[in-house]
Each structure stands twice: as C-alpha cells, then as structure tokens.
Amino acid sequence: MFSGSMVALLTPFGPSGEVDYIGLKKLVDHHIAAGTTAIIAVGTTGESTTLTVDEHIKVVLKTLEYVDGRIPVIAGTGANATHEAVTITKLFSGTGIAACLSVTPYYNKPTQEGLYQHYKAIAEATDIPQILYNVPGRTAVDLLPETVARLAKLDNIIGIKDATGDITRVKKTRELCGADFIQLSGDDATAVDFVAEGGHGVISVTANIAAAAMATMFNLALEGNIDAAQEINQRLMPLHTKLFVEANPIPVKWAAYQMGLIEHDNLRLPLTVLSESQQPIVKQALVDANVL
How does it assemble (predicted)? Predict the structure, then answer.
C-alpha cells in the first residue's frame, strides 16, 4: 500500500533549460535519505506540461533507475485526451513503475460519465495500477465520489489523490469504495486532517522543501499521534500556503534553489521564475518553517 509522505518531485533544469539528470539523482537520494516513502515523477510539480514526450519518459525511467528499488516510483501519465493518456501509460508497461498517477482531463470539462469512460479506457489498456488524481482548482472538473466508486470496481484502479481540500470526502469515499481503496491527500495544508479522517498519506509539494519533517509528521499521523503531527504541521504551514503564491511549481522551484537542493531555478515557458515581489514572502516562509 502507498502511504506516508510521498513527494511530487520537481524536475531540475540546467542553465539552458535542459533536464538536469545529475540534479535529479541528487534529489532522489535526498528524499530516500529523508524518509520519503514514494516519488511521483513528472506530475504537475515535475512540469509535465512543458516536457516533450521523450523527456517525460526519460525523466520517469531515470528516476526509476536512480531509486534502484529503494522506494516505489509512480509515473505521472495524465492527459486531457484519452488516447494520449493511454499511449503514455502503455509506454511504462514492464518498466517496474509501481503505479501511474492520472489527472482528470483538464480544460475540456468532461461529464462524470466522460470521466468514467476516460479512466476505464486507461485501466483496460494496461495492467499497471492506476491512481486517480482529482484537482478541480487546476482542471475545472471535479471527480465526484460516486464516480470514484464506479471506477474502484475496476481491478487496477487502486486509489485516488484528492486535492480538493475537502476532508469530508475521506469518509464518504471509504464508505463507497472500501477501506482498501488508497486515499492520498493532494493538499498539504489539510493533509494531516485527511489522515486523521482515515486517509493513507499525502502526495506533497512541501516535501520537496521539508522532506524529513514531512516524513516524520506522517509517520506520527499514521501511528495515531495526531497531536504531535499537528505540532509539526503548524510549523510547516507557512510552506503549505506560501508555496502557492504563484502557480505550482514556480515557488517551490525557487525555494529549492534557495536551499541549494537544485542548481538553477529556471522553468519553461509559459512558466516564469518567481516574481521579485513574491520572493521575500517565500523566503520568510522558509525561515518561519525552520528549513532555511
């Protein structure tokens, strides 16, 4: 089962915008040493939308190589065209990827039936375990618990990353899908509460910056020591909030650069480096969270 603090890993770029694979290996080793329980490669935080398909595949496979079996690697494989999501997913067959994380189709705003058929098509095209990803704030479509329940009946749809911030969905989803259906928070600020309600862990942006603290916090939460977990959570709350002063992954990449975790803070257009007016805010958050 996937649980604990799982990182939505950023993708480091070199000075000319090329993928920095040496930097990627350093990040992988950093997270394993810090206690991160799984790495999600080339999700939103990994800038999936600006990588070429070849880069996308290579970054995932290099992450898998660098991890070398120490923790699971989950591949981001979502797309807003079903055929594209199916194609990308099938490219990882037989690679050793532990699961795929597939975001709801963005921009085209499908119905609940459309969402069901989208994920059903992906699931039927592969034997790789599939994790649904619901983030209405970015996609403009909400995967409702009733639709999740329909999808949970398919053999290789094993869980969901829920970034709605609505912790009331944890109980409802468990009632509809059963206790074995994996529920992972995609909202750092409410993730401890999510686990307290019965969730299994988090796929985290904050973990890029505070990997060890996030790992400790979710170990405590999963052991039932919610009060101790919340103490850490309150310290990290500036990161949970200020890492989103501009669109993810703009702030987290700048923060990682400030901490020396990556060599450059550059992104690919249309994303741009964190604006000067927001830099003091993010830097103060790093100080307040006691990570800088």
Answer: Homotetramer; dimer of dimers.
